[in-house]
Design a protein that fits this description.
Strand content: 25-35%
Number of strands: 16
CATH topology of the largest domain: Nucleotidyltransferase, domain 5
Radius of gyration: 20 Å
Amino acid sequence: MSILNNNLNAFGLDFSDRAIKVAMLERRNDKLELHGYGREELPAGVIEDGEIKQPEELAVFIRQALSSAAPAPIRSKFVIYSIPETKGFIRVIWVSEAQADDLESAVYAEIEQLFPISLEESYVDWQVLDRKDGHFEILAAAVPQTIVDSYSEALNLAGLKPVAAEIESIAICRSLINEQLSQKPTLIIDLGMDRTGFIIFKAPTVQFTASIPVCGRELNRAIAKKLGVSEEEAQHMKEKCGLNTRGDCEKIFMAMDSGLAEMTGYIEKLLGYYRDHYPSEQDIAKVIICGGESRLTGVSSLLSLKIKKEVEKGNPWVNIIPSEEKEIPVISRGDSLIFVTVLGLALRGVEEDSSI
């Protein structure tokens, strides 16, 4: 099974501990249209920390998501699905042209030193991106076989045929980055409920990824502890106030302050890491945010102020609806931010060649 290369027509399926999302695009008259999309909440214990614990139950929820998809059910049996970022490894590496006669062995030797997993117990995929200055530039990825096999088992139980597995960061970049419009390095921040992910993209692909535990859940816990409320109530308060510091919202913001400071501090370290390790490249030009927590009012402004970079909310329609079109997406702009990964997977399902 490929985890990087091109594909067949298929729908996208994005997994997380809390929910699954599905989306399918169709090409009609040289235009892409959203055939169907949907989301199903998962009970605790079905998927834990990216690992499937109850494949039979998960298969039921997958079938429900497909049958209830709107505006039309998804009936395709072919699926491209996501591998949680924390379970896969992806990196751009360089291999000398002198090793061209046995490039595969050279690639495996390089990534064996970089990835903290046994390659014999992993699915490994790689592709040459460029050839310059006496070296091959190669995108390499590896995922433990147990993770991929468990996801494939659940999909088979749901009556589906896996076409490819794809690490989340690849799908996110395909969804949010239009290479014709964005040639400069970009930092993507995926603000989720269970983790915050960071992706540095420089055409044509992901350069590296990282994640931290500062996330929506941690912010909720901080609010709940500070104000003596339940985490569920804290979530409602956070959604209502966002990062507003006026009136009663000030106490909500202050409860989150240390977590937000930790997040922005990490971003600054990440930007410094990129400058130190890629001194010949252009600096990060802008920051794109996505994920459910990116919908909070004021998050773009706060991050921009702290890290002194242009920060914008992601647009997962940038490669689906041409800029000259005035079409209104089926999914609202706010809700689109939680469907970024699955729309990237769905794009792969209709593209003859994947550029990422």
